[in-house]
From TrEMBL:
Keywords: Hydrolase
SMART domains cross-referenced by the UniProt entry: PP2C_SIG
Entry superkingdom: Bacteria
Classification via InterPro entries: Bact_Sigma-Reg (IPR052016), GAF-like_dom_sf (IPR029016), PPM-type-like_dom_sf (IPR036457), PPM-type_phosphatase-like_dom (IPR001932)
Name assigned to this protein: Serine/threonine-protein phosphatase
GO terms assigned for molecular function: phosphatase activity
Pfam family, one: SpoIIE
Length: 392
């Protein structure tokens, strides 16, 4: 088993980045005796999965296959489909550190034993890691993911995102950005370092490319401070000064910066005219009240104060941008007044990766399925408590 996995890993490492899927196919056929494989990647909205080898023709995957692929992707569990002539198709999630990339399908000549399924799952993990690494070196997998052309603003925003989800012994985190192909200034970022999770959500000022450029400067200023060892206050102040001296107060960015102590559930926060924080505890949704300070870049040498609050094990924290909270497509009450809390309560049994999609789908329904008028970001954080931390 170890030798076989090592052989697959070596084949993937030695393959050119744009040929990882073909290398995986050859290695899996050799190691598992498979008669065929296929790799499906999730699109930007994560509401469809598309074959890499034939991404220009999504009809190549039948409706029945798409249903099985989607079930595997949503549940993050292997799915078996026994077909004619005793053949079995095994669908396996492709995930890295909690980020869902897609699904690997392996066609086997007979019903696989549990040992074979376990080996296939380990191989799927190797394939996922290779795809994630290769994604920075080739456009092939990004082309497979996009179902229409991205605007220039959206291209910048997607390049800037850290990922769409991440897991840890103490937490599970996911984010979603809409409208996926035309976003402007709203954004989210995160980093996990030494049992601390830093999360930022931004409401960028303006629309289109100008808003995306403003967000890019802001995010990279905060990253620069964070990677130099600066805390939340230093991150906010460096970003604020950078934006101010670029735009002299004519442009600004409303931001919330959060730092979770993964061992205790204590959250430090800087609220710079921020997006909105909602806590789901049990079946009750309440707003986390923070004192709003000035948005980043409004004035020179603005200084910021830390605030703190606690999460209990099992708490779910949502962070939403104004495009979610303040949506009022028909002049009636905003989405944040009542409908948003209902959608958040409906996610109680879903993981964060599904919960962000539920809130976004309800937002689309609130708009009567017309295009969103503003960028929208939803970030969902579950804190499990330090007892679930797996060291080693």
């Amino acid at each position: 088993m170890a030798d076989a996995l090592t052989g697959v890993s070596r084949a993937l490492r030695e393959a050119p980045p744009d040929r990882v899927v073909e290398a995986a196919d050859r290695a899996i056929r050799s190691v598992l005796g498979a008669s065929g494989t296929s790799v499906f990647v999730a699109d930007y909205r994560t509401n469809g999965l598309w074959p890499v080898l034939d991404s220009r023709q999504p009809e190549a995957a039948t409706q029945a296959v798409q249903s099985l692929v989607q079930r595997c992707f949503s549940s993050q569990r292997s799915v078996r489909d026994t077909g004619v002539e005793g053949r079995c198709r095994l669908y396996l999630p492709l995930s890295v550190w909690g980020e869902r990339l897609g699904v690997l399908m392996v066609e086997l000549p007979g019903t696989p034993s549990e040992e074979v399924v376990g080996r296939a799952a380990d191989i799927a993990g190797e394939v996922a890691m290779a795809l994630r690494a290769a994604d920075r070196e080739t456009d092939r997998y990004r082309r497979a993911r996009r179902r229409e052309r991205l605007s220039m603003a959206a291209e910048l925003q997607w390049e800037l995102l850290p990922g769409r989800s991440v897991s840890h012994g103490a937490f599970h985190l996911a984010g979603q950005l809409e409208p996926a192909y035309t976003v402007g200034g709203d954004h989210f970022d995160w980093s996990v370092d030494d049992d601390r999770l830093t999360v930022t959500v931004l409401n960028g000022d303006g629309i289109g490319l100008a808003a995306a450029l403003l967000t890019a400067v802001t995010v990279n200023a905060m990253r620069n401070a964070r990677r130099s060892g600066g805390g939340l206050v230093e991150q906010a102040e460096l970003a604020s000064d950078t934006v101010y001296y670029q735009h002299r107060g004519h442009r600004h960015v409303a931001t919330v910066l959060l730092e979770l102590d993964c061992a205790t559930g204590r959250v430090r926060a800087v609220d710079a005219g921020s997006p909105h924080l909602m806590r789901l505890r049990g079946g009750t949704v309440t707003r986390v009240q923070l004192e709003q300070q000035l948005p980043l870049g409004m004035f020179a040498e603005t200084r910021y104060d830390l605030q703190e609050f606690d999460l209990d094990p099992g708490d779910r924290l949502f962070v939403v941008s104004d495009g979610v909270w303040g949506a009022d497509p028909s002049g009636r009450e905003t989405y944040g007044q009542r409908a948003m809390a209902r959608s958040m309560r409906a996610t109680r049994l879903q993981p964060p990766t599904e919960a962000v999609g539920t809130v976004m789908r309800e937002l689309q329904a609130f708009h009567a399925d017309t295009d969103l008028r503003d960028d929208a970001v939803v970030v969902c954080l579950d804190w499990h408590g330090s007892a679930s931390r797996e060291d080693g």
